[in-house]
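Sample log: Diaminopimelate decarboxylase.
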Amino acid sequence: MANKTLPFSQEKLKRIVSQYGTPFHIYDEKAIRENARRLTQAFAWAPEFKEYFAVKATPNPYLLKILREEGFGADCSSLAELVLAEKSGITGENIMFTSNDTPAEEFMKAREIGAVINLDDITHIEFLEKVAGIPDLISFRYNPGPLRSGGNSIIGTPEDAKYGLTKEQLFHAYKIVQDKGVTRFGLHTMVISNELNPDYFIETAEMMFDLVVELKEKLGIKIEFVNFGGGIGIPYRPEQEPIKLEYVGEGVRKAYEERIASKNLHPLKLAMECGRVITGPYGYLVTRALHKKEIYKNYIGLDTCMVDLMRPGIYGAYHHVTVVGKEALPKDHVYDITGSLCENNDKFAVDRQLPRIDLGDLIVIHDTGAHGHAMGFNYNGKLRSAELLLKEDGTVDMIRRAETLEDYFATLDFSKL
Ligand SMILES: Cc1ncc(COP(=O)(O)O)c(C=O)c1O
């Protein structure tokens, strides 16, 4: 069983807490950079490989800048994410815009900054043409439907997912945009989420490579890039194994040689848009035990709540919990670790075996570096925490301050009461 460790000592964490207070998310720059390089290295064999970091996972410009420096682009799905990518220095075709049910202003912004537009539906061709015009390069999101099993509870089985075009629509769509003068074509899919079986990603690549061949044979279209989406899982539980990125890269290489290189379709650019596997394991939610409650069960109430991390509440997701300074003590207590929302699913852990927790103990919730702070909301008027960066040189910067009551009330005009 892997040990879930922290990138700081207890003394260092206490110093950070005394400066910034709790709660906060803190991200480990060194680990993020090393991990980004591992992904790039796994696809170093490819004629061209680009990871477009899924901005929705951790939409913080300081992290986007770090990832840009590592050669990553940005996968955006909203106006705000496009602006964030732009402000982080990620420009033009280094941005993929993969949206659904897209408002006009989002297509307009994507066109304005020259992002690669990846359409989610055949009807969006006409919509895009009307609101922003058709660019030279267009990509479509493929939904393989029941042809492809292996979806999971977050994204669902492909046939139940709202995303993408059917195969028949896909062929029709390329023909339509070709007739409208499009000269460059991309192909995209995203069929799984938080998946730890590496073979699924290789199978997805095989499926997509076969489609590239078919598009060439049937429509004469030469696809310029294939984007396999994100969805690589992380070991939230200590007993789980991380995906070996090298294994995925090698499996995709074999599929590329067999299905693309041998068919004279080389060079084909490859892309992914992972979020979770890039930053997820390198973020930590640091909180304090505020209350202890003993009724039918034993509860530890934290000074945070699900506005800072809603995955356990909405998916029943496991996040590892460390009681700082008590790592070596026996886990001889059973607690539900709760937040302060008036919702009974506001629990970070249920029936968790932990060492005895005392009021004031620092509690760290692991693996919050993706889809953590980002998913926050303001129900109950709760305010989201700050985000900190543990830099490579060991110093700490605040990269987003905590929300204030003024932020919460900023959309109200009390003077008209
Ligand atoms: C279109 C798209 N791309 C990429 C991602 C990133 O997924 P993950 O963080 O699991 O890699 C998502 C997640 O919701 C998505 O919807």
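Observation: The radius of gyration is 23 Å.
Observation: The mean pLDDT is 96.
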